[in-house]
Amino acid sequence: MNKRQLKTYERLLNKKIDSLIGKADSAVGGMSTERETFPDPTDQAAMEAERNFMLRVRDRERKLILKARSALARIESGNYGYCDRCGEQISDRRLKARPEATMCIECKRELEDRERQARLMR
Fold first, then answer.
1. What's the gap between Cα 79 and its chain centre?
2. Of 20, 38, 67, 117, which sits with the fewest C-beta atoms within 10 Å of its C-beta?
3. How far apart (Å, rounded) are the C-alpha atoms in residues 102 and 80?
């Protein structure tokens, strides 16, 4: 992979990190520190369910930030763009769609198929 391509992916990853951090900041600001009281237990349950959902989304975004930072570290070390499983180069198309990818599409599909089969066997 040439330096221009690496710079492009570096910009994509930094943009993604900035966007996710911005979402996290606004979400934290939106959560009130005061305990809200609701006359109806159903309203309170709905609010708590919504808050739990938002926290799960933010946790997924936090993990994505970690993956993006890891990808930036791989760019720095010269290991970016190669599959962790088979060692082959990850396609440009895949990296443009998911710049934090660590596996080529074939290995990722195989892994997901195995995970799906394992869940069915339980």
1. 20
2. 117
3. 8
